[in-house]
């Protein structure tokens, strides 16, 4: 499995709710993530999933991701993607539009040593 396959498997398991499959693609204890403006860097997959569920996951629906750039090297792959979603609940003190509007953000993922180990939103 290539590093890009690992990253895609991780994102695919998240997108389809197959959370029991995530340890195939990440080390649950070593996983780190940064939701810029929300949490700062956190460690542990369980922490990252809870942050998502009660932050972005609660405030946005219909998340889609469009990969914009992929850079691979022998030991790393970095992905830049544009995430779009419908703003449906208050997020960082900002109420959703009526009707809810679409928003976008960039997501950067890094995979090293065979596991997806770092994501930044």
Descriptive overview:
- It is a single chain.
- With 121 residues, the chain is an alpha+beta fold.
- The protein has one domain (3-120): Nuclear Transport Factor 2, Chain: A, CATH 3.10.450.50.
- The protein is built from 4 helices and 6 strands, in the order ααββααββββ.
- A 6-stranded mixed beta sheet has the order 2-1-6-5-4-3.
- A hairpin with a 2-residue loop joins strand 3 and strand 4 (76-87).
- It is globular and about 45 Å long.
Summarize the helices and strands and which ones pair or pack.
Elements: H1 3-15, H2 22-25, E1 32-35, E2 40-43, H3 45-54, H4 56-59, E3 60-73, E4 76-87, E5 102-112, E6 115-120
Parallel strand pairs: 1-6
Antiparallel strand pairs: 1-2, 3-4, 4-5, 5-6
What are the key terms here?
6-stranded mixed β-sheet; 6 strands; 26% helix; 121 residues; Nuclear Transport Factor 2, Chain: A; alpha+beta; globular; 42% strand
The side-by-side strand order for the widest beta sheet comes to 2-1-6-5-4-3
Number of domains: 1
Which value, in Å, is the CA radius of gyration? 14 Å
**Helix-residue proportion:** 25-40%
Mind summarizing the main beta sheet?
A: 6 strands, mixed
**Extended strand count:** 6
The CATH architecture would be Roll
């Amino acid at each position: 499995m290539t590093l890009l396959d690992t990253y895609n498997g991780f994102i695919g398991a998240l997108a389809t709710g197959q959370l029991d499959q995530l340890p195939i693609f990440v080390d649950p204890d070593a996983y780190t993530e940064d939701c810029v403006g929300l949490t700062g860097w956190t460690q542990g997959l369980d922490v990252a999933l809870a942050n998502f569920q009660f932050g972005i996951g609660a405030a946005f629906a219909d998340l889609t991701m469009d990969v914009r750039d992929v850079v691979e090297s022998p030991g790393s792959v970095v992905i830049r993607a544009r995430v779009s979603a419908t703003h449906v609940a208050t997020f960082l003190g900002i109420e959703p539009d009526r009707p809810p509007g679409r928003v976008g953000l960039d997501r950067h993922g890094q995979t090293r040593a065979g596991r997806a180990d770092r994501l930044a939103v």
